[in-house]
Structures are given as C-alpha cells and as structure tokens.
Specification:
Layout (H helix, E strand, L loop, with lengths): L2 H7 L1 E10 L5 E11 L7 H8 L2 H21 L5 E5 L7 H9 L7 E5 L11 H14 L4 E3 L9 H6 L6 E5 L8 H17 L3 E5 L4 H9 L4 E2 L12
Parallel strand pairs: 2-3, 3-4, 4-5, 5-6, 6-7, 7-8
Antiparallel strand pairs: 1-2, 1-8
Helix pairs in contact: 3-4
Length: about 230
C-alpha cells in the first residue's frame, strides 16, 4: 500500500445535520465532513497534502465517489452538502469526479470553502468566478462557505450572486464580537440573502438561547452541536 492509499484508509465520513427551525426543528440535510481514525477533528494536513497533487487528488476523489454512492444508496432522499477546497477546482480529476456523480446532483450540493488559493493566474478572481459558473452549469447547487472569512468575502458573494444558491456563516469565526454587534452583522447577511433569494445557514449554534435568537431574526437554517454533532450516517 503506497502513502496515499495508507492515508485514505485512515479517513472516514461523518455527517452533521442542517436543521430547518420553525415550529418544530426538522433535519433539512447533512454536511459531509472528513475525519481521521488516528486524530481528532478534520485531518487538515493530510487533506492539503492529498489535494496538492493531481494524482493524489484523483485518488481522494475516487474515495469520495465510493463513499457518496454508499450514502446515497442508503439514504436516497437525503440532501448532502460536500465541501470543495478552491485548489481542487484546478484539478481535472475533480471535474471528472463531479461528472461521475452528476446523476446524484439532486441530492448533493457543493460548498466552496473559504481557503485562500493561489491559482497562478493574472486574474484569480475571474478564474474562480469561471469555476463557479462551471459548477452551476454542471447543475450543482452551490453554497459559499464561511462568508466573512478567508477569500469568501462580500465581494466574492456579490460577484457570483447569479450562480450561487446559499451562503453559510459560522458563529465560531466571530466569537470575539459583542453578541448584539454579531446579531446585527448577521442581520445584514439575512437581508442580502432574502433580497437575492439565497438560503442562509448559520453554523456553530451551540445552545437553545442562541438558536431561538437566530430564529427570531429569520435565520431558520442552523447547524451546530445544539442540533447534533457530526456522526456516521447509517
């Protein structure tokens, strides 16, 4: 077994519920998250090594393809959100993977992560916009993950407003803010999402009080420990 396959053998998939909070909280779908058997949390170092090379990314995409098929076979009516790092959009293997799972696109949406990525192009923003247009053209619903952090700023959202379906914002990224300031900040994103008919999902919801405050402000799609930890979906 080579290094890549050894690392892939250490990985497994968990799913964290995305709740629709109304009179009664119901699961609207799940975000797919990568985990390691040997370490806690997201195996970032391993993941970044895998996606840094076309061949290694290809093997990672083959792993995802197999795992997604198993999930969709077992949960045919369940919505699943898959994270893609911007760097992966440079690899032909990623687009081949997306073509392979195109039959599942009614179930699977794409979340574009906030990580900075050097595309090696004179106009990186334009190239990223072209990638997002290509994802949309392939029929996938697209969410901009962790807006307000990394490269997923307001300008990126505005530049791609016609091709995205959702925005996600994590409370954990703004823990240092006064709560009222944070709620006002969130409200501006709610206004934007409602105006442009985008779904807005708030991540990092850890207790009932925060959940209810968000719901009262119109933030009804929520994700976090309060609504359920990430776990294997059987």
């Amino acid at each position: 077994m080579d290094d890549t396959q050894e690392l892939l053998a250490d990985l497994y998939i968990v799913c964290q519920p995305i709740m629709l909070c109304s009179d009664k909280n119901v699961i609207d779908g799940y975000e797919i998250l990568l985990r390691s058997k040997k370490q806690d949390g997201f195996p970032e170092k391993t993941f970044l090594w895998l996606i840094d090379d076309e061949q290694r990314n290809s093997e990672l995409m083959a792993y995802y393809s197999k795992e997604l098929k198993k999930l969709c076979d077992a949960h045919s009516n369940t919505k699943l959100a898959l994270n893609l790092h911007p760097k992966q959009l440079q690899h032909p293997s990623t687009w081949l993977f997306l073509d392979t799972i195109s039959a599942l696109k009614e179930n699977i949406s794409i979340e574009l992560t906030e990580h900075q990525c050097e595309f090696g192009a004179a106009d990186q923003e334009k190239l990223l916009q072209e990638y997002i247009e290509k994802l949309k053209g392939a029929g996938f619903s697209i969410a901009i993950d962790d807006v307000g952090t990394g490269q997923n700023n307001l300008q990126l959202v505005v530049n791609n407003i016609a091709n995205i379906n959702a925005i996600k914002l994590s409370l954990t990224a703004f823990q240092g803010l006064d709560e009222q300031v944070l709620l006002n900040y969130l409200s501006s994103w709610v206004f934007l999402s409602e105006h442009y008919h985008l779904t807005m999902i708030v991540e990092g919801v850890e207790n009932a009080r925060i959940s209810n405050e968000l719901k009262n402000l119109g933030m009804v799609y929520q994700q976090g420990y309060y609504h359920g930890k990430a776990q294997e979906l059987h």
